[in-house]
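The protein record filed here.
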Amino acid sequence: MKTLTSAVEKKNYKTFFKSFFLLPFINGLFGFTLFFTILFLTKSFSSWIGSIEVFTIDIEDVVLSSIGFILLFLIKFLENFAEKEK
């Protein structure tokens, strides 16, 4: 009986870890990448047309991209608490 209980507990821990940490983290990385790519393309286009003279990626760009991480992480994390429709 002990092995059956521990196997079920391990499965519950895996499901919990996957839904509350792994999937939100992966979506957060996607959001970060999306925001960073948009910033990169905008800055490179501005540099190409001559709007800015020097093309640089600053720490502010990384901080701004972290907003994408936080937004998508929270959306996926809070979906775990949404009521399921029957």
Summary: The chain has two helices and no strands.
